[in-house]
Amino acid sequence: MFDLFLFIGLPYVAIASLVVVSFIRYKFRAFSYSSLSTQFLEDRWLAWASLPWHLGIILILLGHLLAFGLPGVWSILVSIPTFLLVVEALGIFSALLCLVSLVILLIRRFVDAKLQAVTSYLDVVVLLILLFQVLTGLAAAIHHRWGAAWAPGALGPYIRSIFLLQPDASFVKDMPPFVKLHIASAWVLIMFFPFTRLVHALSVPLHYFVRSPQKVVWNSSRSQVRFEQKIQFDNEKRLFLKAAFGAGASVALLSLGVLDKFFRYFLKQDLTNAEESHILSQKLQRLKQSADERELELERMNKDSIFVAKLSELSRTRGKYFIDYQMRPALAFSDEQGLPILISAKCTHLGCTVGQELDAQGRILCPCHISYFDIKTGQPSPGSPAKLPLPHLGWALKDEQGNLLMAQDPEGRREGSIDPSQAGKSLLFIGKRFS
Asked: Is residue 285 part of a domain?
């Protein structure tokens, strides 16, 4: 429930706040659209903070916009090891620039008496939010390396789901804590944005590049009157052209909509039988998948043990996938003695499903971000993005009549024993008592 609030409710509150409050503030308090510069009150500290801050934050924002705005191009670029290394180093350097600058800006606000007199609570709040945002981003970059490669693919679908009004928090619910905090604090920052002096970022005077040249003339009152009349005429002409363009665009869009419905009605561009069959088959497949999942959940609620496989079917080099009591993927192997090894197949880094093939060193691979796990200990290899081990699962071996022969809990403690002559006919189960 808390994840739904942070990653679905909060984003829409933040976006609504950004759009509505920014418009109201621009409409009724236009002169407050300013950074309210305090440089004339204190410029020594500001000189060491302002330029590094703007340089660092612009580089970070450009990187985020390119990665999430053009994911296809970005994935091609970061597939080049040199480019990925440069991007990661530049990102960490930019974050450090921002971090040092924000600390200086905070100290500046508290040590200068003149600045304290004009500092509002929101000034401090927004600096603290920015500081938290930079710290969580830097922590995520250090603890979960190569984010430039995996973040767009892992978080891009979540961001698109928000703006397509089809929110899906499942993309981020298994993310590491630093990543989740970074995302949540970004939405908090967007929510506070229109209430603070940060709104000056929305008032970049781009119209200066397209407006008519201005010339100030000190002359007689008659020339001044003529000049004002010309300015008024130019403004009226510009407003008329804007209104005509807007009206023309509205009529064109309305005409396209009407003509589309007109042609669809008279030409009857209905779906073919093949297209309708394809759509219905997709819906049926999704319903079957949902029904299968509900059946598995019901089975795990009502049964104390779930059949996995015959012991003779297990391999030492290729795992058998199954679903555990928590509805998570798991793998079953056979060890050197012919006994089972049951281990979770849900990567502890970002929740991807690990592969079932064992390499020469007895490890399985998570293909998402290249983490190797030893199936005997569950531990990831040094330097892997994953830091936590894959947990083992408890198991029970029964004969064909359902009698318990041998069991082992997740910690490796065993009870009972199995006759080698019974091994080929033994049945492997997972038990609710081990979950």
From this structure: no
